[in-house]
Write a structure and sequence with these properties.
By secondary structure, this protein is an alpha/beta fold. It is 41% helix and 21% strand. It holds the Pfam family LysR_substrate.
């Protein structure tokens, strides 16, 4: 029998490839160049003398040999993470407080499952969300009214560090029989004579307005709602159109309530980052919460991209 060649990094690579279905996306997920990841996979296949996946399929289709290693990755990696977490708890303690502030209404859709998962591993950490929507989440960190924040832009601030979460696409939404439903791509001008339904936030926090409409001098009639489901209902009843993250709209698209369209030829993409105080960066449970949020998001939300 050949000596053991398989390493944890190989399992992480294969799992990233399985979850993304793409060599280029998997490379970003594990912070390798595409050529470095391809070389790693080639060495694995040469060692075992077996192909691990079919390269001309989209998404990639794993061979039985590849699926066996994916099964191993799913069995081993969670145990490794659990062991490393246990060691961190022994070293730094298991108790603490983590207050979370968010500046996006749709954050709760993916944040709550991550919080539930985190609580199972850190039962002595008091986890809470700072109530309300916050336009200055970083300010809450600086005044110690929050310990972890979700932000959409990086503003260089002394004592604060930002860590990438993910990038996602914003899509235009309208009723199935709306005139704009016949267009596959919406341009800025398509919004000019429409009622735009948004969350009640400042214009500079809405990427559609800041990146697409305002540069063209377009400022449509506005209607606001605090709740995503209320926005969906208003759009479905032809009271206006909206732009929401694809992953937030997908459950309603799958049920046929409305249709989604790409915004501009290049698409409208938004980013999310975690912001924390620099002095807290090495606290074990703070770092583990970040890793939990990222892992939970990529495993459950459709259409995410790695944010470098």
């Amino acid at each position: 029998m050949k000596p053991i060649f398989l390493e944890l990094r190989h399992l992480k690579t294969l799992l990233a490839l399985k979850e993304t279905g793409s060599v280029s996306l998997a490379a970003k997920r594990v912070y390798l160049t595409q050529s470095a990841l391809s070389h790693q996979l080639k060495l694995l296949e040469e060692h075992y003398g077996l192909p691990l996946f079919e390269r001309k399929t989209q998404p990639l289709r794993f061979t039985p040999a590849g699926e066996r290693l994916i099964k191993l990755a799913n069995e081993i990696l969670p145990k490794v993470i659990e062991a490393e977490r246990d060691l961190s708890q022994v070293k730094q303690g298991e108790a603490g407080e983590l207050r979370i502030a968010v500046e996006c209404h749709t954050c709760f859709d993916w944040l709550m499952p991550a919080m539930d998962s985190f609580r199972q591993n850190w039962p002595l950490v008091e986890l809470d969300i700072v109530s309300g929507f916050h336009t200055d989440a970083v300010g809450l960190l600086l005044t110690h009214r929050a310990d972890w924040a979700v932000v959409s832009e990086i503003e260089e601030t002394t004592g604060i560090i930002h860590k990438p979460l993910f990038s996602y696409e914003m899509v235009g939404l309208c009723a199935k029989d709306h005139p704009l439903a016949h267009k596959t791509v919406w341009q800025a001008e398509d919004f000019a004579d429409q009622t735009l339904i948004t969350y009640p936030v400042p214009d500079d926090m809405l990427d559609l307005l800041r990146k697409v409409l305002h540069p063209k001098g377009i400022n449509p009639i506005r209607r606001t709602s605090e709740l995503t489901i209320a926005i969906i209902q208003l759009v479905a009843s032809k009271r206006g159109i909206a732009a929401l993250p694809f992953w937030a709209a997908k459950p309603y698209l799958d049920r046929g309530y409305l249709v989604a369209r790409q915004i501009t030829e290049v698409g409208l993409h938004s980013n999310l980052y975690a912001a924390i105080r620099e002095i807290d960066a090495k606290i074990a449970f703070v770092d583990d919460f970040y890793e939990t949020v990222k892992a939970q998001s990529f495993s459950t939300l459709p259409g995410l991209s790695v944010l470098e």
